[in-house]
Design brief:
Largest sheet: 6 strands, parallel
Number of strands: 13
Radius of gyration: 27 Å
Distance between the termini: 47 Å
Helix content: 40-55%
Shape: globular
Strand content: 5-15%
Length: 650
């Protein structure tokens, strides 16, 4: 009976959503759903629960239900649940935005022309006020030249291209921010475009709506208000779980006319973890969740250590020893059974040992998104071509090695196998020689640099070299001169693309290629979520039995992103943050509180918070005074004898 109570407590919210999804009386809604509340399940059940008549009517008029998800994995799962029924158009936000504007070349060209002219005028105005001979002066000149060149070439473009999951280069390619801006512009400024969207979609449902890009979300809200009663804009999310700064901060305050069903339950975590999550968000919006009655107990501990002088690796291992003791769960001493969450990716990269590869490629705007989520085409040469080939050779698996070559090497293309070049060996012979050469730098347990590996791949033409990497090849490399000819001969050329001229991109790759090749495997394990480490961005929506959250302001690279010392009253708000607070803008405390909430609420059974502080005693007072933690739940590294003993055992 108890289980039924917990299972049905939020049934009213799901019923409200079903009522809103009506073709006769459509009503927009915002579903508040905190961590572990089953938000995505509600979305799936709403789609599965649509009556046959509604679906039949939609199919008859070639209309679709747009379902916008946060990740490709979520899109795949929902598509599977609705049995890939084409009436449901399930996409990520970038894919959806592109689907709205794709093919509207004349309109896109007109918008780009106007936008580029405005940007050039703004740069010129700043340029006129700036001093010559400075880096800023030179950067402005390069920007003006680049944008002017693009403006002049717009008329040559017959059709614009865009890859939602990758990086976009070439004169006909649109950037991610441009696609979002274009969709937002047409939704609010073009009556014809609005009518097309209304005719195509009676329902637009957005999961994780708090992190949907601000320009597009604002445009959708404007669009909905203008056509209320003709469309359902269904938003699902929790503003406390907004982790990106480009989301709409006050989304919950902008939907006053929407139906606002809310979920109370947390089905994920045990009661102690739910209680901590409620404490964290109490001063933010006062919303509280309820744990399942069949999930009592749970363990939470805070481990405090000084920022200076603490051996972090030893301290974190000793934390796991202590967690195993207090929980009675020996899995806490198995690194693979624990999910360790950091606030920044670079902290995870440092702990996993791929910083030399990570740091350069995570900075340039045109590289960082694709690199961080594993979709950067140039990086995939190493992760999806070279690494599997090297691994297969090391394992003596000739079948797997040939499969990798057949999948991506021009040498074993059917035409490459049949024809040698100018009396040279056939492609298959060349491939064997190339693989042998590739393995040479790895002899005697050597760990060659990525640059060494790239040079061999290029010299032996094992795989096509992406445009971004060609400037990084040795000047005397034959590939640097004739790669394009080889690809053209085998009819493997890619669509016309201009290699990026920005020296920052080439410089980033040049630096990253100095990294040992072994870091490629560590990087791949991280982006595929096969490593013990994660970040708040990567784990949103996921859950793990054992979670360790590491808060370390001293090792935070991006100052201002978050500050646990400020949240815990060790430091005061900076004057800039105080001014933001007075102006109603988001403060460091708000942002840090959200990030802490997101990470802590991933835990199902037990949670360890590892905090490094300039003033551990002050943090302890804050946690106990504000009733986040009981006294026996805070473990001081320098004062607790049991914990010191555990540390010595490590």
């Amino acid at each position: 009976m108890t289980d039924m109570t917990d299972a049905t407590r939020d049934a009213g919210a799901d019923a409200t959503i079903r009522e809103c999804l009506s073709l006769d009386q459509p009503r927009s809604f915002f579903l508040f759903a905190g961590a572990g509340s089953g938000k995505t399940r509600s979305l799936k059940e709403a789609l599965e629960g649509l009556d046959t008549q509604t679906l039949t009517t939609l199919r008859k008029h070639s209309r679709k239900i747009a379902v916008i998800t946060y990740t490709n994995a979520a899109a795949d799962e929902i598509t599977r649940r609705v049995k890939a029924d084409p009436v449901f158009q399930v996409q990520t936000i970038h894919s959806f935005a592109w689907s709205l504007i794709e093919g509207r070349s004349a309109d896109i060209r007109g918008w780009l022309e106007s936008n580029l002219q405005t940007e050039i005028a703004e740069i010129q105005a700043a340029h006129a006020k700036g001093r010559s001979g400075t880096d800023a002066h030179d950067k402005r000149e390069k920007k003006m030249a680049s944008k002017t060149k693009r403006l002049e070439r717009l008329a040559e473009i017959r059709a614009f291209t865009y890859a939602p999951e990758g990086d976009n280069f070439g004169r006909d390619a649109l950037q991610h921010t441009e696609v979002i801006a274009l969709a937002a512009h047409f939704l609010t400024e073009s009556e014809t475009f609005q009518n097309i969207v209304l005719a195509r979609y009676p329902f637009i449902l957005i999961d994780e709506s708090q992190d949907t890009m601000k320009p597009l979300m604002e445009a959708l809200l404007t669009f909905e208000a203008r056509h209320r009663g003709r469309i359902v804009l269904g938003l699902l999310g929790d503003t406390m779980q907004r982790i990106y700064t480009d989301g709409l901060r006050d989304l919950d305050q902008r939907v006053g006319d929407f139906a606002q069903p809310a979920k109370q339950m947390n089905h994920r975590s045990r009661k102690r973890i739910v209680d901590l999550a409620n404490s964290i968000r109490r001063d933010e919006d006062g919303r509280q969740q309820r744990a399942r009655e069949d999930k009592p107990g749970g363990t939470v501990r805070v481990f405090l250590a000084p920022s200076e002088g603490t051996d972090r690796a030893t301290f974190e291992v000793s934390t796991c020893v202590e967690m195993a003791r207090v929980t009675g769960d020996p899995a806490w001493q198995n690194a693979e059974a624990i999910k360790t969450l950091t606030i920044e990716r670079h902290m995870a990269a440092a702990r996993l040992g791929f910083s030399e590869l990570f740091e350069p490629l995570s900075k340039p705007d045109k590289l960082k998104d694709g690199f961080r989520d594993g979709t950067l085409p140039a990086m995939r040469l190493f992760t999806h071509r070279v690494l599997p080939l090297v691994t297969a050779q090391r394992n003596g698996d000739a079948f797997a090695a040939m499969a990798v070559l057949r999948d991506g090497s021009p040498l074993v293309d059917k035409r490459g196998i049949r024809t040698g070049r100018g009396g040279q060996a056939s492609g298959l012979d060349a491939a064997r020689a190339g693989v042998a050469a590739l393995m040479t730098p790895f002899k005697d347990e050597r760990d060659p640099s990525c640059a060494e590996v790239l040079a061999v791949v290029a010299e032996h033409r094992l795989f096509p070299i992406p445009d971004q990497l060609r400037p990084c090849l040795p000047d005397d490399s034959p590939m640097a001169q004739d790669m394009a000819d080889i690809l053209a001969e085998l009819d493997l050329t890619t669509p016309e693309a201009t290699p990026p001229a920005e020296t920052a991109i080439t410089g980033a790759w040049t630096q990253a290629l100095k990294a040992p090749f072994s870091q490629v495997a560590r990087y791949l394990a991280y982006v595929e979520d096969r490593s013990p480490y994660g970040t708040h961005q990567g784990v949103k929506g996921l859950e793990f039995p054992r979670v360790m959250v590491i808060a370390d302001d001293a090792h935070t690279r991006f100052k201002g992103l978050a500050s646990y010392e400020t949240l815990f009253d060790v430091k005061r708000l900076s004057p800039a943050s105080q001014k933001k607070a007075e102006q109603g803008e988001e403060t460091t405390i708000e942002r840090t509180r959200r990030l802490l909430y997101v990470t802590c609420t991933r835990a199902e059974e037990s949670l360890a918070l590892v905090l490094y502080s300039e003033a551990p005693d002050a943090v302890r007072r804050f946690l106990i005074t504000n009733k986040w933690m009981a006294e026996d739940e805070v473990v001081m590294a320098a004062a607790d004898g049991t914990f010191q003993e555990a540390a010595q055992q490590c």
